[in-house]
């Protein structure tokens, strides 16, 4: 299955509701098809604290680029 859309949610300021919006938007999209929510916060994951769902981590093997 190919990725059809990537929708970034960002802001230069903290505390503006990015996580709340992203979770609710992902839940709404999931009613129409398979949806993946990825939190790229390098510090801490607010998504982990906001929803009571196990977080799945998938290790991606590095590619050899020669």
Order of helices and strands: HH
Characterize the main sheet.
none
Relative strand content: under 5%
Q: Helix count, per DSSP?
A: 2
Number of strands: 0
Q: Whole-Å distance between the termini?
A: 28 Å
Question: Helix/strand-derived class?
Answer: mainly alpha
Mean pLDDT across all residues, rounded?
78
Oligomer: single chain
Radius of gyration: 14 Å
Silhouette: globular
Low-confidence stretches: none
Detailed description of the structure:
This protein is mainly alpha-helical and 66 residues long. Helices cover 27% and strands 0% of the residues. It has 2 helices and no strands. The protein is globular, with a radius of gyration of 14 Å. The mean pLDDT is 78.
Q: Outline of this structure?
A:
The chain has 66 residues and is an all-alpha fold. It has 2 helices and no strands.
Topology:
Elements: H1 18-30, H2 46-50
Entry keywords:
66 residues; mainly alpha; globular
